[in-house]
Amino acid sequence: MSWLGKQIEELNTPYYREKLAWGVPSGYILTIGLAVLALLFGHVGLLENVWSMVLILAPIKLFTNTLMWWSLRKDRFVLSVAVLNQTADVGLITGMIYFTGGPTSPVISVYYVVLALIAMLTNVGATILTGALMLVAYSTMLVLIHSGVLKFYPTFLQTVYEEGEFTWFFVVIDILKVGFLLAIMVVASSAILKKVQEQQEALQLKNRELEEANQLKSQFVANITHELRTPIHGVLGLTEMLDDEIYGSVNQRQKKALDGIKTSAEGLLHMVDDLLSLERVNSGHLSMRISVVPLQKLIEELMAFGLGIRGKRDISIEAHCPPSLVLMATDKSLLHHILTNLLANALKFTPDGGRVVIRVEREGTFAKISVSDTGIGIPEEKIHTIWEPFRQIDGTASRSYGGAGLGLAVVARLAKLLKADVSVASKVGVGTTFCVTLDGCTVSD
Q1: How far apart are CA 436 and CA 343, in angstroms?
Q2: Backbone φ and ψ of 181, nearest 5°
Q3: At 61, is the secondary structure helix, strand, or coil?
Q4: Using an 8 Å Cβ cutoff, are 407 and 379 in contact?
Q5: What is the DSSP code string of 165-185?
Q6: Whether residue 170 has pLDDT greater than 60
Q7: Where are the transmembrane segments (predicted)?
Q8: pLDDT tens digits, residue range 187-203?
Q9: How confident is the model over 51-110, as pLDDT tens digits?
């Protein structure tokens, strides 16, 4: 569908239907006002063919306006009737322009008033189409007058100026004409702006309610994660004690079961930590503690973590760090959390027989820490979604890989807090590389 088609189809949404409803009273005001002025000017002999305007143009517009009201109320044929009603608007105004002087008519300014109202009530596409329809209708009228198909009616003000009869009567008439145009604009725009103000106040109230609900949710998540950490640590501690045979000897089958319990508990603890970190970052309660961090030692800790969660799976983990001791002025806890999430992610999506590589490189004062894997890879069209909370490449219940979709969302937010840059390069079936780049690197031999 083209851009213009999408713009028109957009008017079918509930948001624009409510705004279209405000065009109904303004249509009645415009039609009745123009009819009253035509009768007034006709009564004093200033206009010809008054009844053509009052008995033909005005009833057609009143009919389409009423049809618009019915369509909105019944929620039927709204878009089609809106187009018909707008065409009637243009026809009414163009007819009034024709009978009041054509190119010299003072009613031409009604075009601009109506177009401004349409811009307020609809969208860019509808405004452009209406403006184009006005131009076509006006141009057609001028061509027909010039070719003699339509009679030219000079405006009464033009006649007055040429005959030198600029009396107080005509001053009053002209003031009434301008006042009418201004009144239409003021009344219609005031009603629309009042409605907009009411909607803004309702939106502000809703925003306050959402903020309060978000605060309650954050507090709940913080409380529940703290409550979950205690029993998980208890499970891990008890597992370690059983594995150390404090309560008696353990055979190989039992040790394998304990390893499974430990791996599951550690995975659950990692997810709880991610959820807690995400809420702390979102609520602004996560502060940084800058210190000098030896990256080589950090990588050693990262390797130990990776070997622990890898377990007995057939995945090789390698680390490459400069021989010189690279020091980093950063928050060790946050950087460690970022890297463990990236490593856990790499191990989760790398099949047995695969390879995960951690690499540290220095470029001036910048340190680049990359985590590469030979896993399943990420489709190019889904890379932009991986940083969103609870989003996974495969979000179905039958997916092959577990997790809550928090790890990379936490990485993105913690990296922003550290003013670090995180990039990703991936190819489906080949693997993925995440790279964290930080400033503040020094070297100590």
Answers
A1: 12
A2: -60, -45
A3: helix
A4: no
A5: ---HHHHHHHHHHHHHHHHHH
A6: no
A7: 20-44, 50-70, 166-193
A8: 666 666 677 777 788 88
A9: 766 778 888 888 998 998 899 888 888 888 888 988 988 888 888 888 888 887 877 888
